Amino acid sequence: MKALVFQGSGKSAWEEIADPALQEATDAIVRVDAVTICGTDLHILKGDVPEVRPGTVLGHEAVGEVVEVGSDVRGVRPGERVLVSCITACGRCRFCREGAYGQCRGGGGWILGHLINGTQAEYVRVPYADLSVHPLPGAVDSKDAVLLADIIPTAYEVGVLNGRVRPGDTITVVGAGPIGLAAIATARLYTPEKIIAVDLAPPRLEAAKRFGADAVASAGEEAEQLVADLTEGLGADVVIEAVGVPESFETCTRMVRPGGHVANVGVHGKPATLHLEDLWIKNVTITTGLVDTHSTPMLLRMLAAGRLPTASMVTHTFPLDHMEEAYDVFSRAADTGALKVVLGGQQHDVLAVRAS
């Protein structure tokens, strides 16, 4: 099969590798129909995630068709169309029993495209399939569903839920890329008073307005002043960091009100300064997190009911074998206007025979 293989910092290639095979009785093999590229994949390519070893197939989000399952798999069967979650869950360890699947200690957590071969390929092996793939309703389009593999549950759980968004809150989202836009869309489910979006790129600020931001500002002093002006100098109730650079995190801590919440969602590759000399007295709660995907079944129901704005988030589509072109477009979002890129997306009505 063909797959996008990480070859070291700054290097990857779409190349021929061996087909995946079942290794455990709890595995499933999924033929990939649609994948997307995550900002975390770009971090890997920049060398920010040293655990990813050269030779690893990248990607942790997909929609596809089950073609083979191990003897212990009960929840899905060959021929079913499924969402492959970015998080794998053993279902038995302490954290899985608490619903904290991202912290799985039984061989799961974020492993696809990180510690084992991922989804940016023609086929993928998914461990612990019963808890790590989700059957899809036939009416749900693959290009929409693939966004529920990672960015929407991540924004909702790590941003909105960790940030304790409540009705009437003022929310500031720093970073209006895909995660930030998903945070805006899912924060609106809680009827906040206002949402302020901050980003350096004017096209992303325009997108933030379409997704429900009430006010927008460029990063820096302009954004901090706008938040102060709109909150009578108090600061935002919840500030969601959706960039992953030191400057954006430090900006978030300056824009939060006393007793407020800073929810960090961004993937950080460099140290950020925590100004406790300013924050210790403000009763501020700072949360970090890896998505657990416990909300995925609920979000899938909302998607099927037309309650999530996924379609407007996909700005570019490519055939699956145009992976390198898709990475180039996604990595130059400021020039290309890319929000989310989706590769593939065609739906199959009959089970294909896997190439041997």
From TrEMBL:
Protein name in UniProt: Zinc-dependent alcohol dehydrogenase family protein
Pfam families: ADH_N, ADH_zinc_N
Domain of life: Bacteria
Alphabetized UniProt keyword annotations: Metal-binding, Oxidoreductase, Zinc
Annotated SMART domains: PKS_ER (SM00829)
Cofactor (UniProt): Zn(2+)
Enoyl reductase (ER) domain segment(s): 8-343
Assigned protein family: Belongs to the zinc-containing alcohol dehydrogenase family.
SUPFAM superfamilies: GroES-like, NAD(P)-binding Rossmann-fold domains
